[in-house]
């Protein structure tokens, strides 16, 4: 079974589409755990309204947990702790899945017992190119985060000793994927099977420079953490930091151009 974790916070406008994209999956052996992180709008009402329209066999697959606000990492961790499935898949309340996402990912896990994490491309429409599979090594992941959280499925066993860092607000998901990829097999599928409802870019709808800076700080702190834990040496740390700063400057330029035009 696949346990799907959706954290929500003031998501009344988007939560229905997110939930329906799970309910309408071609693969149906799932449970859905919605963790509301202290919403003060009508998110809970929207969730319950949808649940009440569902047949009983679907209703019993959905669990709603309410908690005081802790942030998305705390909400995801709560969902993981309550998950009963062998696999965990994450979806954000303002994103949605294409109908065959779970089926395609589950098939790869079934075909490869060594596989621990499987992620798909994240975007707005399916690619015209043939599907390409890439094994993402730890070193590859250091220089590019291939794994967008709403596109990730992972074996629950990999989350027994690691979790989302609730003290880190930006790039905390990348920190977790790096930790897992260090000694586990990870697969990337270049087929878009998850997307944002508002067509936001990977670093925000408006590319706000303040958010970009915080994301960059988070990414750099991830590299420092790996160095302090002995997972990368000083030379590799310098390479990662330098490459990250170059990417950050590129994003700033793109952000400025978007605002100008």
Short account of what is shown:
The chain is an alpha/beta fold and 261 residues long.
Task: Briefly note the structural class of the backbone.
Answer: alpha/beta
Tell me the span between the first and last alpha carbons: 47 Å
Radius of gyration, taken over Cα atoms and rounded to an integer in Å = 18 Å
Low-confidence parts: none
Describe this entry's structure for a reader:
With 261 residues, this protein is of the alpha/beta class. The protein has two domains: 195 residues, Spore Coat Polysaccharide Biosynthesis Protein SpsA, Chain A, CATH 3.90.550; 52 residues. The protein is built from nine helices and nine strands. Strands 1, 2, 3, 4, 5, 6, 7, 8 and 9 form a nine-stranded mixed beta sheet that branches. The longest helix is centred in the last third of the chain and has 27 residues. The radius of gyration is 18 Å and the shape is globular.
